[in-house]
Amino acid sequence: MKPGWLLGISMLALAGCSSDSDDNNELDAIELASPALQTCFDTIRNYYGWTRINQVEVLACNEPDVATLDGIEQFPNLVQLNITSEQLTQVQLANSLIYAQLESPVLSEVDLTSASSLRYLLLGSPELDDVDLAAVPGLKGLLLDQLPLTQLDLSLVPELDELVLKRLPLTTLDLRPVPLLDLLQLDGNEALSQIRFGDQVYLNEMALRDSPLLSSLDLSALTGLQLFYATGTGLTGLDLTYNTELSVFEAPGNQFTMQRFDYNTELRYLDLSDNPLSEDARQYLMTLDWVETVKY
Q1: Residues 6+ apart with CB under 8 A from 205
Q2: Which letter, b or e, does each residue of 90-115 get, where b requires 16 or more Cβ atoms within 10 Å of its Cβ?
């Protein structure tokens, strides 16, 4: 269920970078402010045989001691940046970047003003209370984890098609400004009580986990929805009349008392286990002979 852009480093980008010669290695002169980042970079470039600055397109480091990214501006072709650290506090992203993943428990500032080419952004920090999405209007994928945001204005990123929000204190989420949304994943947003959908006809997959205050959803506009996952919510039942392409409905551990699937003839997998289903609901579920797997 993870978005394709979360799967890690582009090995294609790395594989295309091979050494021309060790006689004139431009990268020997590169100095990065963080010793931990320098060591990580040297390990990567030696492994892949990079010798030219223009070969450095991806930099991925999981090093707890990286406290600054100063120096990476020396890589004009850098398109993907993956940094997981325990000490990183501030970052300014360059215009060359298309993909950026930044995770640090003390990260409090991310400057996106020069990152207009960015298309995929992943941020994880309980200290980052502001994200200037207006600077990246062409964003396609957004993942926010543990940010102390109580509001999220998605009108600033109208081209967004993949959204993952984890452990945010949001109470409401307005998705009407992002009609191209294809994937929605909401995990551990315990204060979330309302989601407002627009005409998300392209929304194919939705996953909701651990939002106990979320008790209702209007899915009538989501005519392309095929995969629905929910657990740990306050949902008691959904109107699936217009979700005729639905093939997977996996919703264990919620508050469903009744759920009908009269219009969901494409449904192949159904899981309503660990729900307080009424006896009428259980009798109804026994009649769904077109569904290959039924659990309740």
Answers
A1: 1, 182, 183, 184, 185, 225, 226, 227, 228, 229
A2: ebebbebbbbbbbbbeebeebebeeb
Is the four-CA dihedral 70, 72, 76, 82 of positive or negative sign? negative
Please give the Cα distance from 99 to 9 (Å, whole number).
10
pLDDT confidence of residue 165: 98
- Say which amino acid occupies 25: N
Q: Which residue positions in the chain have pLDDT lower than 50? A: 1-2, 5, 7-17, 19
Strands 172-174 and 141-145, sheet pairing: unpaired
pTM over 0.85: yes
Give dist(CA 245, CA 256) in Å, integer: 21
- Residue 102 in contact with residue 83, Cβ under 8 Å? yes
Q: In angstroms, rounded to a whole number, what is the distance separating the alpha carbons of residues 194 and 65?
A: 39
Residue 234's closest CA among 210, 258, 206, 261?
210
